[in-house]
Amino acid sequence: MFFPLARGALGLAARGLQRTAARQVHSKHGPDFHDKYGNLILLGGALFCASIWSYVVTQTGIEWNLSPVGRITPKEWREE
User: Fold this and answer.
1) What string of pLDDT tens digits covers the 80 residues of the chain?
2) How many CA atoms lie within 13 A of 10 on its CB side?
3) Is the CB of residue 69 less than 8 Å from the CB of residue 63?
4) Residue 46: its pLDDT value, please?
5) Residue 80 to residue 67: CA distance in whole angstroms
6) CA–CA gap between residue 1 and residue 17 (Å, rounded)
7) Any signal peptide, and if so, which residues (predicted)?
8) b/e per residue 45-78 (b: at least 16 CB within 10 A)
9) With the CA atoms of 24, 28, 34 and 40 taken in that order, what torsion angle do they form, in degrees rounded to the nearest 10?
């Protein structure tokens, strides 16, 4: 008794999916914003980011606290 009912429900679900797929295949749409300009905006953002960071690194004079190894000599130890 349950098997024919389940088979019928699956048949209805499959039929609904087939109709949805058929509607999507027949709809004609042009390229959207991301298809047209997505890569251009991505490259522009990457170029902008790289240019800003190159300016910050070379022109602002920020001390980046790099490793002091070899630049600092230890003081003599005093015993008190």
Assistant:
1) 566 666 666 565 666 767 776 666 666 677 888 888 999 999 999 999 999 999 998 998 887 777 777 777 778 888 76
2) 6
3) no
4) 97
5) 31
6) 25
7) none
8) eeeeeeeeeeeeeeeeeeeeeeeeeeeeeeeeee
9) 140
Place of tokens 């088979």: 7
Position 39 scores a pLDDT of: 94
Domains observed in the chain: 2-60 (4.10.51.10)
Do residues 40 and 33 lie in contact, with contact meaning Cβ atoms separated by under 8 Å?
Answer: no
Are 34 and 42 in contact by the 8 Å Cβ rule? The answer is no
pTM above 0.85, yes or no: no
